[in-house]
Design goal:
Blueprint (H helix, E strand, L loop, with lengths): L2 E4 L14 H6 L3 E4 L6 E2 L4 E2 L5 E10 L7 E8 L14 H4 L3 E6 L5 E7 L4 H9 L6 E6 L5 E7 L1
Antiparallel strand pairs: 1-10, 2-5, 3-4, 5-6, 7-8, 7-9, 9-10
Length: about 150
Amino acid sequence: MQFTFKALDHTIFAPLYGLSDEALREKGIIPYVADGGGFPCRVTLEDAQVGDRVLLLNHVYLETHSPYRGRHAIFVRDGATSKHLPPNEIPEMILKRPQSLRAFDRNDMMLEAMVAEGGQVQDAIEELGRLKDVAYLHLHNAAYGCFMARVEYG
């Protein structure tokens, strides 16, 4: 089964890149300097490196009129450009954290959900991909609940 992780589009965040800490805070965005693990960038699908400036901001990850409309805090590396992964490649930032996987149909209605440890994520993606009417998955950090990535099939 072929699946692809989709990073968030960097052009959404580009107007924020390089702004001063004060200007970001006025917009409700908290700048950090990465000091180790714990700063997964949703644009590069990689953990920020020590010393990278990251932005903690609220993001609508499911813009829909269904009951599953969703928004939560995410990290974006300042200046990041969108990464495009080849089919069936799972980002390391996903594999090292327990994930909540949520399967949706084309009407943005949730069909099923499950939790998987990093080593079980591929099996979970494949299992959910066999559901009738599944269009895509959303993965969330199982501990913090924040959106991690979208997975598309085909």
